[in-house]
Amino acid sequence: MIASVKTLLKKEAREFFSELKGPRKTSDIPGKLLSLLLAVAIVVVACFVLKRFGTMYVGIEINRVPDPYGRLWELTSAIYLLIIFVNVVGGVRTINRSLFESEDLRIFVTLPLSSGAMYVSKMTVAYVKQFVFGFFTVLPVNITLATCGAEVGAQFYGMTVLILFLLPLISLALGSVLALPLYALKTLVSSRYGISLIVVTALTGLAFWLYSEALGFIADLISTGDVRFFFDADTMREIARVTSDMYPAVFFSNMLLTDAMPEGVGWVLLTTALLITAGVLTGRLMLLPAAQNKLFALDSRYVYKGHSLPAPRSKFASFMKKELLVVLRTPSYAFRYFSTAVIMPLMVYFCMEIFSELAGLLVFVNCDLEIAVFLIVMFGILTNTYCAGNVSRDGEFFFMMKTMPVSYRTAISAKVVFCFIGAAVSTAVSVALVGGLGYVNAWQAVFLLVVTLAISAAQICFATRRDLGHPRFGTEAGAEEPDSTVSVLVLIGLAVSMAIGGIMLYDGVYLKLTKGESFGELASVISMAVIAAALFAGSLVYLFKGLDEKCRNAGGEDK
Amino acid sequence: MTKPEAYPRAEEEVAVRVDGLKKRYPRASEYAVNGISFEVRRGEIVGLLGHNGAGKSTTLKCLTGMLPYKEGEIEIFGEPMKGEALAAKMRFGFVTDNHAVFRKMTGLEYLAFMADVYGVGAEERVARVEELQRCFALGDKIKNLISSYSHGMKQRICMMGSLIHDPDLWILDEPMLGLDPVTMDSVCRFMRDYADRGGAVLFSTHNLDAVRRICDRAIVIRAGRLAADLPAAEFGEGRELERFFLSDEENAG
């Protein structure tokens, strides 16, 4: 078995490094850079917020009695519960990908490899991934906790190292137990397209709303100074009671901060051992059925029943319908098309309030129109990434389309219009929200709508044309394709929205202050109109100039 | 969409004319297809034979507009295949070798999509689907998502989609792959019937039995060049095709 595990691990390592060394065309370098930047930004912001909040929290006195270690213990327990939750979610995802969604196992199952060897090799890779994730999350968080005001010693740092090794074990073991029912549930829900779309959209909207409310609440507490009164003696007693029940996170707090460290280590080891036993049993039990694709063939158990032969449509309408069906019946596309469109107005709404207040406080000038343009453009670009795979999404069918009596313009235009409908609805709702809340007046709202729609259309045309130039076709039409264009689109989109935001703020703030309100506003409106018109016209030319030639040559240009 | 009962062989119209076709892929040093010329007429079933990588699929892909080409001429019923070639594309139906269908559509939705693309009317499409169902027998499964289909069922829905507009020319890339003997038999009979009603069939294959059974001609491609154009009389019931392939292999070796 050891020889088999070694062979399988070598294969995993070779695959990992070949992906890194792969040709530039196939590796998504902008995507990887973007993910890295995003991860660093999240960790830095989280640590910054934790440091500010932790310092304040550790200094809280109950009946004028300070207890920095007690406060730090409570904070650590709460933070570790969150970290364990995130790790378990990550663990379940990793296990699902390694076991149920991996094509490898279908090959392995035909080879003389024991299920133990397969399981150990897959779990080792999952453990390494979780360890790396933990290294970049647990370590900065622990270092931040150590600087919050309560002095910590060698025990804290020593135990941090031990936790780095133990935490992935716990999360993977717990993940192994949960992976099976969750995967079955996911498969069951994802094949019911309508329900899955509504549930995912509702959950995402709810999560975003809760996050915004929580953030708003904390910001209110800090800005009004109510934070001093919020953590009164009763509240603190309640917090102490709740955090003392946060198992298994309290074991980690004990390991890091209390004299009950050996006890804490013992409990953590015992919990880990129990969970690993349960995880290994469940994991190995489900491995072979998963590999043989018997237990999880839920997709084929539930068969969508269509209706009679659909009525005739024009070629354009038929291509539009094809796009709609692909979106509705592919959960990840549906999420990107519908759910993100629902979230965008919410993002604009929350940020508009903050930015408008901030501008009023900092420069005493009303530049709500400029802020609205910036926010709608930025969030529009960030959420409307569906168009980035407009061509690649067709897979091999793109080549089939080339044999049909349909002009390339019709086929590509249907994709652009379909994407634009989704983007236009979320843009219009955002504008209505901004107008309804009184940030802009009626004519400004109309102007805002025209400008943002033009930029949105420009983004779709640009993304479609770029995808046509660098298509990454999946093997089957409607199969989910790798999307490197998304990363490029997001990077370029961010740069464009920053540039637009910069110009808008220059006009809206600097010119209003130096040359007067009306001149500034006029300059601002003209700049916006010119930029939007230029982007729109430029993207149309970029997309449609030489479109036929580009489509004809896609995938096999003659030398 | 009614067809004449049978076309007189003496007045056979040229369905496909390929003249000096050359195709080289990007970054390739050699031509995948190097100066091929042939014709396919109405009423004919022509098999395109050759080893893997000989240039069969490339020829078919150039012929159907899937791949661009710069050298040589292709005409479908006299319509050139250069540019978008919408008129030429209206005349044929094409079945790829890799099931290029939307797996998130039901079989019926896919057929309706293809009918829309080829401008088939409401009543006509219903009649066509019924007629095609008789041959390809997807039954009630036609209402299911294509993603739930087996390999053979996907092949059948592709064939049905390519025939929804009752084309004059049917082009197929490796159509026999993955078909069970019963379906293969019904596809062969459908091809023969289709050709007898005046249609032209051109397909690539490695299945010599199928070629021997239904083809009027066999075109053999070797290393991108036309190696032979054999009428049925020359390969008939005997082992000529096998002999040709064996010698071809020796030559290749």
How would you describe this structure in keywords?
heterodimer, A: 559 residues, mainly alpha, two-stranded antiparallel sheet, 21 helices, B: 253 residues, alpha/beta, Rossmann fold, 37% helix, globular, disordered N terminus
Describe the structure.
The complex is a heterodimer of chains A (559) and B (253). Chain A is mainly α and 559 residues long. Chain A contains 21 helices and two strands. Chain A has a two-stranded antiparallel sheet with strand order 1-2. In chain A, helix 10 packs antiparallel against helix 11. Chain A starts with a helix and ends in a 6-residue tail after the last helix. In chain B, the strands form two sheets. Chain B has a six-stranded mixed sheet with strand order 6-7-8-3-9-10, sandwiched between helices. Chain B has a four-stranded antiparallel sheet with strand order 2-1-4-5. The radius of gyration of chain B is 18 Å and the shape is globular. Chain B has helices spanning 56-64, 86-90, 107-117, 122-136, 151-163, 181-196, 208-214, 232-235, 240-252, and strands at 14-23, 33-41, 45-49, 71-76, 79-80, 92-95, 169-173, 200-204, 217-222, 225-231. The longest helix of chain B is centred in the last third of the chain and has 16 residues, at 181-196. Chains A and B meet through helix 13, helix 16 and helix 21 of A and helix 2, helix 3 and helix 4 of B.
Secondary structure: elements and pairs:
The complex is a heterodimer of chains A (559) and B (253).
Chain A: H1 2-21, H2 29-58, E1 61-62, E2 65-66, H3 68-100, H4 104-108, H5 115-146, H6 154-190, H7 193-224, H8 227-230, H9 233-244, H10 249-257, H11 261-292, H12 298-301, H13 315-328, H14 331-363, H15 368-383, H16 397-401, H17 408-436, H18 442-469, H19 484-515, H20 517-544, H21 547-553
Antiparallel strand pairs in A: 1-2
Helix pairs in contact in A: 1-5, 2-5, 2-19, 3-5, 3-6, 3-9, 3-10, 5-6, 5-11, 6-10, 6-11, 7-14, 10-11, 13-17, 14-15, 14-17, 15-18, 15-19, 17-18, 18-19, 18-20, 19-20
Chain B: E1 14-23, E2 33-41, E3 45-49, H1 56-64, E4 71-76, E5 79-80, H2 86-90, E6 92-95, H3 107-117, H4 122-136, H5 151-163, E7 169-173, H6 181-196, E8 200-204, H7 208-214, E9 217-222, E10 225-231, H8 232-235, H9 240-252
Parallel strand pairs in B: 3-8, 3-9, 6-7, 7-8
Antiparallel strand pairs in B: 1-2, 1-4, 4-5, 9-10
